């Protein structure tokens, strides 16, 4: 199980690093006034995340199956380690954010010339790959830079909560499957109960607000300069959301186990 845990740990890191770095593409697009091109590139980064998830999810379910045959196996501890990987992946994305803003800015410009993703990939040379070191930039985080950004505290808090629910959605359903073996199949498919609540909050409260902030940045130079700080703050709140998931997983698992018991 240790080898499986290592693989799941790495894949979880990749998933959360890729999803968090999507902010760097949006910011690069706003800086270049090419937000539509940037959003198309976001799909490529999310493809990495979803491909990793295709492998990660079945391997995570393997822990529940193993726990059925070995009653001493502490499946919750393994799930907490996986959640830790989500936090580490988010921290890695925060550290890489300035570098990837520069890199994606270059990619957006190259894509405009190439005209398509296949042509862009085929035009990449070894020399260009070596030159990527010139785009490396150290992160510079300080509490003072997050002041006076005009972002409501409620928005940040909701972002933390949504991230916690999304992070724990699949794991809580698998934990519920462990708690109620008689309904394990139903429970393992019930992650939508948790993710559904997160989706509602995201759709109604977070996406429109983030859209307004981004739209304002495309029309106002001062707002554009602040947008990078706003995205950094969202990534930091995302990190706290992955930490909150450590507290949410058990009650969420029990809630799902109770619901599937009623059905």
Structural overview:
This protein is mainly alpha-helical and 263 residues long. The radius of gyration is 20 Å and the shape is globular.
SSE diagram, text form:
Blueprint: H1 2-31, H2 35-69, H3 75-114, H4 117-122, H5 126-130, H6 153-179, H7 184-188, H8 191-219, H9 221-262
Helix pairs in contact: 1-2, 1-3, 1-9, 2-3, 2-6, 3-6, 3-9, 6-8, 6-9, 8-9
Features:
263 residues, mainly alpha
Summarize the structure.
The protein is 83% helix and 0% strand. It is an all-alpha fold and 263 residues long.
Write down the overall geometry: globular
| Quantity of strands, as a count | 0
SS summary, helix count: 9
Whole-angstrom Rg: 20 Å
Average pLDDT value?
81
Terminal CA distance reads: 33 Å
Which structural category fits the helices and strands? Answer: mainly alpha
Main sheet attributes: strand count, strand direction, barrel closure:
none
Strand content: under 5%
Residues in helices, as a percent range: over 70%
Low-pLDDT regions: none
User: Multimeric state of these chains?
Assistant: single chain
Order of helices and strands: HHHHHHHHH
